[in-house]
Amino acid sequence: MVLKLKVSNIACERCAEIITQSIHLMELEAKVNMDVNAETVTVESAASEESIK
C-alpha cells in the first residue's frame, strides 16, 4: 500500500529522520519518502494506515 500523509509540523531534516526511523521500527522494509518543504510523507508499506499514523 502507498500512503501519502500531510504532516504540518515537519520543521527540518532531523524531523524527517525521526519519522522515517519510527516507521522503520514497525516495518524495516518500508519505503519512506519525506518532503520537508511540502510537509508530506509518502510511505510504501504492508503495514496498515492506522499503524503508520
Would you write up a description of this structure?
It is globular, with a radius of gyration of 10 Å. The model has no long low-confidence stretch (mean pLDDT 91). It is 34% helix and 28% strand. It has a three-stranded antiparallel beta sheet, covered by helices on one side. The longest helix is centred in the middle third of the chain and has 14 residues, at 13-26. It has a single domain (2-52), classed as Alpha-Beta Plaits, CATH 3.30.70. It has helices spanning 13-26, 49-52; strands at residues 2-6, 31-35, 40-44. It is α+β, with helices and mostly antiparallel strands and 53 residues long. It has two helices and three strands, in the order E-H-E-E-H.
Secondary structure layout plus pairing:
Layout: E1 2-6, H1 13-26, E2 31-35, E3 40-44, H2 49-52
Antiparallel strand pairs: 1-3, 2-3
